[in-house]
């Protein structure tokens, strides 16, 4: 880890960890309005997502369908229960998980642009899935078709293994490289992964290639009630564990040496954070495909809103803001476009790219672009 | 003293400046963020004007069917049976595919069993078999045991239809049943009457098969009696499972996966099975078959056969060519009285060839048929001039009946449903002496001087 003097970290908001005990200090009350606002926004957009789609369903129809009371149109309930509700839940869960993973990675690597994509984790997941698709296509034609449930599980396994390999590599590299070289290393890994995917897909047939493309385009629509419990479990587990790691993460902001002086077992904490990130990113990427930008931008938005770097306060805000952006992206992408489908990552890019540009300019002006404080 | 004061004043000034700058930076930062966010949201919402939504008042159409008692003289295309008698044959009109290899049908008095067995001849298809039991309305469904276990039961004749492939829409229209359509892929349909109905919002959009799986929201909202759904790739297979789990009566269609043009056109009989319109389908297809046989016999009789290939430029110096015996375009070339120098009887799929390979195998081909309606994006003239067809201006595309404004392609509608028209066009190209005065319906010369 780089500990150069030029890096500024907002120390004021960070309290010294009391051993390794979970967080005992309450979240400052001044943040409550922000949390409430975010919660209300999430609830509102969630409801909108249930109401608005190709088929218009009024609010009373949504509520009646959800609570099983008599509805004007009997077709509304199956649309809401089987199509819109699991999709909206997946968008909220994925957004929360990715935002939390972005916060963790930015702290772990002390890099404001760190995230699963920039660090090559997404590319790792893509390579993993491409490998599964190619090998199943080569070993047994029809394998993916006849064993649909297993095939999804195998794609998920491929994604998780790929992402895990990359993050292990990145953590090892982070011991030798500074912030900017590490980011470049991550980008290079990403490009290498993309190249590898293209080469792998060259050796597969068209239907197998379409299976990959379908996963790679990123969507919450493929998550049904069968997949939702797995996604929800992994994300919830990751979020809870992340909250318990908040104080250790705060200590990381000040550098490894400072964290050690506060009694943090740095190596063990690093492995713990990595495991959490794998649980969050791996599960989301496995079931929804690569979802971009949420992971990078949400922590910055939350830091801007709360004016703190304290993870005990940032994490709940990131969770809510991530869910909000996940839902917003899906709400726009899932709108009843008259002629063509819109990809959720295109919408995320429209929202996310300006924020990243803003982060870069802001950091350049304040001379501290390489910090996460 | 004064210098100290001046220094102090300078320092406090610098401090103030720094603080102001920091404040300004903070303000500008948030300002930038706000501007960016507002811009993004406005941009995205401005796009939302291009949305099409459906308001359902009271659910799907409620079409009552008249009842019929006794033994019918023809299949009941609109009625429901009253007083079901198991000894009566409710399907006196029967069809059996002669050319199509993917589906088969057997009749059992008051129900039909339709089986799909996609062969693994083309890697684009998947090998999952499917069984459907089509039960005459007003009769009882058979128990799904033995080889019928897991089959999908669909009541016939279907009153409302959704279809996500234009070839199926064309079949339905040819059978005179376009009024039963409640949803199609979208506006990109060449048939003007059907497109007008879409424009008037009398038809819903479920998305085309070449994009992705159908929009199940719309399907669930309209509850069609049957959803004809192209199932050509694995993602669509999965979507069909989901659709059926949600109670949608989804019927896979694989006309485009057949190996010959007559086999593809024979899927009109498959569609007719759901409408109890077997008699009409048999009449229509017999005419198509007769027309194709007549033209083919005429075209292949001659000894002077030109060399012709079917190529589409993929980009990057590669061409997709028709060379497999399982590619219906290769059959068109052969049956129109041409020699396909790229034909490869061992090839399972359409071949991908580089420009160099194409030059080696078919540099002297007299004719090129392509779907590319413009030469823009093709390899440079310096390469193309190596090919005889380019030099002699005998490159033809099949987009003559294309409405580029929509865009909609009749090649995939009438062209697929009436292969005789295509065969006649090609035969007239290769053997103009046999079809004097013929006006091309689908083909026209590719303008090679566009660049």
List the helices and strands and how they pair.
The complex is a heterodimer of chains A (373) and B (451).
Chain A: H1 32-51, E1 55-56, H2 59-67, H3 76-108, H4 121-139, H5 143-146, H6 148-174, H7 179-202, H8 206-216, H9 228-244, H10 246-253, H11 256-261, H12 266-288, H13 294-306, H14 311-333, H15 344-366
Helix pairs in contact in A: 1-3, 1-14, 2-3, 3-9, 3-12, 3-13, 3-14, 4-6, 4-7, 4-8, 6-7, 6-12, 9-12, 13-14, 13-15, 14-15
Chain B: H1 2-47, E1 54-55, E2 67-69, E3 80-82, E4 103-108, E5 111-116, E6 130-136, E7 152-156, E8 161-163, H2 166-174, E9 181-184, H3 192-199, E10 204-205, H4 216-222, E11 226-230, H5 234-245, E12 250-253, H6 261-265, H7 267-275, H8 278-301, E13 308-315, E14 318-321, H9 328-335, E15 351-354, H10 355-362, E16 367-370, H11 381-384, H12 388-392, E17 395-397, E18 402-403, E19 408-409, H13 414-417, H14 419-430, E20 444-445
Parallel strand pairs in B: 2-3, 6-7, 8-9, 8-11, 9-10, 11-12, 13-16, 16-17
Antiparallel strand pairs in B: 4-5, 5-6, 13-14, 14-15, 17-20, 18-19
Helix pairs in contact in B: 2-7, 7-8, 8-14
Q: What do these coordinates show?
A:
The complex is a heterodimer of chains A (373) and B (451). Chain A has 373 residues and is an all-alpha fold. Chain A has one domain (38-55, 85-366): ABC transporter involved in vitamin B12 uptake, BtuC (Orthogonal Bundle), CATH 1.10.3470. Helices cover 70% and strands 1% of the residues of chain A. In chain A, helix 3 runs antiparallel to helix 12 (266-288). The two termini of chain A are 15 Å apart. In chain A, 53% of the residues are buried. Mean pLDDT of chain A is 81; it is low at 1-22, 139-150 and 367-371. Chain B has 451 residues and is of the alpha/beta class. Chain B folds into 2 domains: 67-289, Rossmann fold (3-Layer(aba) Sandwich), CATH 3.40.50.1980; 302-445, Nitrogenase molybdenum iron protein domain (Rossmann fold, 3-Layer(aba) Sandwich). Helices cover 36% and strands 18% of the residues of chain B. Chain B contains 14 helices and 20 strands. Chain B has a 6-stranded mixed sheet. Chain B has a 5-stranded parallel sheet with strand order 10-9-8-11-12, sandwiched between helices. In chain B, strands 4-5-6-7 form a 4-stranded mixed sheet, covered by helices on one side. In chain B, helix 3 links the parallel strand 9 (181-184) and strand 10 (204-205). Residues 1-11, 57-62 and 121-126 of chain B have low confidence and may be disordered. Chains A and B meet through strand 1, helix 3, helix 5, helix 8 and helix 15 of A and helix 1, strand 1, strand 10, helix 4 and helix 5 of B.
């Amino acid at each position: 880890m780089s500990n150069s003097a030029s890096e500024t970290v907002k120390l004021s908001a960070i309290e010294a960890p009391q051993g390794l005990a979970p967080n005992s200090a309450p979240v400052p009350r001044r943040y409550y309005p922000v949390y409430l606002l975010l919660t209300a926004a999430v609830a509102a957009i969630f409801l909108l997502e249930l109401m608005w789609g190709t088929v218009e369903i009024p609010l009373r129809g949504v509520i009646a369908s959800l609570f099983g009371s008599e509805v004007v149109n009997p077709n509304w309930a199956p649309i809401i229960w089987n199509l819109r509700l699991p999709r909206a839940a997946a968008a909220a869960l994925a957004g929360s998980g990715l935002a939390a993973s972005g916060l963790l990675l930015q702290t772990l690597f002390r890099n404001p642009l760190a995230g699963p994509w920039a660090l090559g984790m997404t590319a790792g997941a893509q390579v993993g899935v491409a490998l599964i698709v190619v090998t199943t296509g080569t070993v047994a034609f029809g394998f993916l078709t006849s064993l649909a449930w297993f095939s999804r599980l195998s794609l998920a396994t491929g994604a998780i293994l790929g992402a895990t390999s990359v993050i292990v590599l990145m953590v090892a590299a982070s011991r030798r490289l500074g912030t900017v070289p590490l980011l470049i290393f991550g980008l290079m890994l990403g490009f290498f992964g993309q190249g590898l995917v293209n080469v792998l897909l060259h050796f597969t047939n068209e239907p197998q290639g379409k299976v990959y493309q379908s996963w790679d385009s990123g969507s919450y629509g493929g998550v049904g009630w069968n997949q939702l419990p797995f996604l929800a479990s992994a994300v919830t587990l990751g979020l809870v564990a992340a909250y318990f790691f908040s104080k250790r993460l705060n200590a990381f902001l000040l550098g490894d040496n400072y964290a050690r002086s506060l009694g943090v077992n740095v190596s063990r904490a690093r492995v713990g954070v990595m495991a959490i990130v794998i649980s969050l990113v791996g599960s989301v990427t496995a079931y929804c495909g690569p979802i971009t930008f949420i992971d990078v931008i949400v922590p910055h938005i939350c830091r801007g809103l709360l004016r703190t770097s304290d993870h005990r306060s940032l994490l709940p805000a990131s969770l809510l803001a991530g869910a909000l952006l996940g839902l917003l992206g899906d709400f726009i992408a899932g709108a009843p476009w008259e002629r063509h489908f819109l990809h959720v990552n295109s919408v995320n890019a429209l929202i996310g790219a300006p924020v990243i540009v803003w982060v870069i300019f802001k950091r350049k002006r304040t001379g501290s672009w390489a910090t996460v404080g | 003293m004064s210098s100290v004061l001046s220094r102090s004043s300078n320092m406090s000034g610098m401090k103030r400046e720094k603080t102001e700058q920091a404040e300004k930076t903070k303000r500008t930062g948030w300002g930038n963020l706000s501007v960016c966010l507002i811009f993004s949201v406005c941009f995205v919402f401005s796009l939302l004007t291009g949305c099409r939504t459906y308001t359902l008042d009271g659910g799907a159409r409620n079409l009552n069917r008249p009842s019929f008692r006794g033994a019918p003289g023809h299949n009941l295309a609109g009625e429901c049976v009253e007083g079901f008698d198991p000894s009566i044959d409710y399907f006196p009109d029967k069809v059996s595919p002669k050319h199509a290899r993917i589906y088969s049908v057997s009749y059992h008095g008051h129900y039909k069993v339709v089986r799909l067995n996609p062969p693994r001849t083309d890697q684009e298809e998947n090998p999952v078999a499917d069984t459907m039991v089509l039960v005459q309305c007003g009769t009882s469904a058979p128990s799904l045991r033995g080889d019928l276990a897991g089959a999908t039961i669909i009541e016939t004749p279907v009153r409302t239809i959704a279809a996500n492939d234009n070839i199926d829409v064309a079949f339905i229209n040819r059978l005179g049943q376009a009024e039963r359509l409640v949803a199609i892929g979208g506006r990109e349909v060449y048939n003007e009457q059907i497109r007008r109905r879409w424009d008037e919002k009398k038809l819903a959009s479920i998305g085309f098969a070449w994009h992705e799986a159908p929009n199940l929201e719309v399907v669930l909202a309209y509850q069609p009696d049957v959803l004809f759904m192209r199932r050509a790739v694995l993602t669509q297979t999965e979507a069909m499972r989901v659709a059926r789990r949600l109670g949608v009566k989804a019927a896979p269609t694989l006309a485009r996966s057949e190996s010959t043009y007559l086999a593809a056109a024979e899927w009109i009989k498959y569609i007719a099975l759901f409408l109890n319109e077997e008699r009409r389908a048999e009449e229509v297809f017999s005419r198509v078959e007769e027309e194709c046989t007549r033209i083919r016999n005429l075209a292949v009789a001659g000894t002077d056969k030109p060399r012709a290939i079917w190529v589409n430029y993929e980009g990057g110096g590669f061409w997709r060519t028709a060379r497999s015996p399982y590619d219906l375009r290769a059959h068109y070339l052969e049956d129109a009285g041409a020699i396909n120098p790229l034909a490869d009887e061992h090839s399972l799929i359409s071949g991908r060839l580089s420009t160099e390979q194409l030059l080696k195998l078919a540099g002297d081909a007299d004719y090129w048929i392509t779907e590319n309606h413009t030469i823009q994006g093709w390899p440079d003239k310096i390469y193309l001039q190596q090919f005889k067809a380019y030099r002699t201006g005998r490159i033809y595309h099949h987009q003559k009946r294309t409405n580029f404004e929509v865009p909609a392609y009749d090649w995939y509608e009438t062209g697929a449903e009436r292969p005789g028209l295509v065969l006649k066009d090609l035969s007239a190209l290769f053997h103009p002496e046999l079809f004097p005065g013929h006006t091309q319906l689908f083909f026209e010369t590719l303008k090679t001087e566009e660049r």
